[in-house]
Amino acid sequence: KESAYASYTFLAHLVIDLSPWFRYKRLPETIEMRGCDRLEDGGFNYQLMQTGFLLVNDILASVLGVDSPLNETLRLHLGQKTSILQETAKSLGIVLDDLADKSAIRKARDIHLRKDDQKLLISLVRLVGNLCYKCRYNQDLLRTTMVPQSRIPVGLSDGNDDGDNMKVSSRSEEHTSEL
After folding, report:
1. What is the pLDDT of residue 87?
2. Among residues 20, 102, 147, 162, which one has the fewest Cβ atoms lying within 10 Å of its Cβ?
3. What is the pTM of this model?
4. Using CA atoms, how far apart are residues 50 and 158, in angstroms rounded to an integer?
């Protein structure tokens, strides 16, 4: 049991360590990075890091997706001893902000996600869901996790719209302020 905890805690820490790098690469304006994290990397390094991030997320999501007494305690252990749930929620928020911004002025039928983006979204959602499955502590933790909003308002980065995006954005901000 302890060796399983140690193995999955190690994987969780890999995700935690890669999450800021991933968020910075996805939307650089959303996170401040340390100097050593801003290394100019070529396409190979980027693809390697991206693949590693996705694979570790997939491994954890798959393992935690099995309903067993060990996994119930493992979910609780990871929620209490690591920040994997918070980091994954933040990464999911960044991906959704990025995709929303890229598709803001398109009609729904014209939006096509790349296969990499589809895999990434599925992996992140599965990991969050499987961390919270039958674990009240993680469910409460997710409810109280603040996911920062992108610094670029969705739909306003491209000045070629007719104002509809501005209306939608201001309406959503009005609704948010009413809450």
Report:
1. 94
2. 162
3. 0.76
4. 27
Average confidence (pLDDT) over 2-13: 95
Q: Rounded distance, CA 61 to CA 159, Å?
A: 39
Residue 133 has pLDDT above 60, yes or no: yes
**What is the CA 47 to chain-centroid distance, rounded?**
17
- State how far the Cα of 21 lies from the Cα of 18, in Å rounded to an integer: 5
CA 57 – CA 55 distance, rounded (Å): 5
The H or E element spanning position 96 is helix 84-102
Q: Are 65 and 130 in contact (CB under 8 A)?
A: yes
DSSP of 39-59, one letter per residue?
----HHHHHHHHHHHHHHHHH
- Higher-confidence position of 86 and 169: 86
